Amino acid sequence: MAEDLRFVVKKVVGEENFVDMYPNKSNNYCCGGGGGFLQSGYAEERHKFGQIKTDQIIATKADYCITPCHNCHAQVHDLAEIHDHAWNTVHLWTLICLSLGILGPNERAYLGDDLAGVAVFHPESEM
């Protein structure tokens, strides 16, 4: 399954833009937000556990961290914000929709300036 997801991501962002984490696939680290931990109220503990994932993301030097689920997105986004790290956290579905040209203007909150205006349909320009 890990190879299938990598195939999709590489097709969406371009293979030359894909940066894998290490370790990866079934040896990858948990972000620390799943299994109810995100809503548990133990933010300090969650951030401390998430430091492993933070270090892993920083090591990639990537501009974006693509997350497959809502819990991962919320945790990874939070980890970037609490320490003012440079990466943008984006849902995989956001990039899939962006690549298809169907991502609406109101669905771009997590895109960086480099992607926020890509393929935005403006009805007034069609008149």
Structural class: mainly alpha
Count of β-strands: 2
Number of helices: 4
Give the overall form: globular
Q: Could you tell me the radius of gyration in angstroms?
A: 16 Å
The figure for the number of domains is: 1
Which regions have little confidence, pLDDT < 50, spanning 5+ residues? none
What is the element string, with H for helices and E for strands?
Answer: HHEHEH
How are the strands of the biggest sheet laid out side by side? 1-2
Q: Biggest sheet: strands, sense, closure?
A: 2 strands, parallel
| Oligomeric state, counting identical vs distinct chains | single chain
Tell me the fraction of residues in β-strands, as a range. Answer: 5-15%
> Portion of residues in helices?
40-55%
What is the arithmetic mean of pLDDT? 90
Write the layout of secondary structure elements.
Blueprint: H1 2-13, H2 43-60, E1 64-67, H3 70-82, E2 88-91, H4 92-100
Parallel strand pairs: 1-2
What does this structure look like?
- With about 130 residues, the chain is mainly alpha-helical.
- The chain has a two-stranded parallel ribbon with strand order 1-2.
- About 15% of the residues are buried.
- It has one domain (about 1-125).
- Helix 2 (about 45-60) packs across helix 3 (about 70-80).
- The mean pLDDT is about 90.
- It has four helices and two strands.
Please tag this protein with its features.
41% helix; 127 residues; 6% strand; mainly alpha; 2 strands; globular; single chain
